[in-house]
Design a protein that fits this description.
The protein is mostly helical. The protein is built from five helices and two strands. The protein has a two-stranded antiparallel sheet with strand order 1-2. Strand 1 and strand 2 form a beta hairpin.
Length: 137
């Protein structure tokens, strides 16, 4: 096992412990579910948790499940915070890209990636598709 894999696992364990503490505090405060009320500090903590988990490659849905709440609630809180100017969006609107010389086509046609606005990239190897998608994060 590589050093970076060990570090990543340790970070994920720390995040899981943080989620467990968050759930415990919410339960002590009055429960969970559609009627739960969260303090401003708890909302901020939940949003910071989601951003940290996204940097590790997790989705909002995964982070929400770990926190014991709905992804819709977290998305709504994130939108409200951005509107209020409390935080920057998780991603920039435009991402710089580098165009490289065309490679020989991959046998079997390769992968095709469809992006927003009709962008289509064809003939990718699995490694190229992973690099492309990671670059968009």
């Amino acid at each position: 096992m590589s050093m970076s894999a060990t570090t990543k696992e340790a970070e994920e364990m720390d995040m899981k412990e943080q989620a467990e503490k968050f759930r415990k505090v919410v339960l002590e405060r009055g429960g969970v579910g559609p009627r739960a009320r969260y303090t401003t500090e708890q909302r901020q903590e939940a949003l910071e948790y989601v951003r940290a988990r996204q940097k590790q490659g997790a989705s909002v849905e995964e982070a929400a499940k770990e926190l014991g709440m709905s992804s819709w609630t977290l998305s709504r809180w994130g939108s409200a915070a951005r509107r209020a100017g409390q935080q920057q969006p998780a991603r920039a609107a435009l991402v710089p890209v580098e165009v490289k010389a065309e490679r020989a086509p991959v046998r079997g046609g390769g992968l095709v990636v469809h992006g927003p606005g009709g962008v289509r990239v064809e003939g990718l190897s699995l490694e190229d598709a992973v690099r492309l998608l990671r670059g968009l994060l």
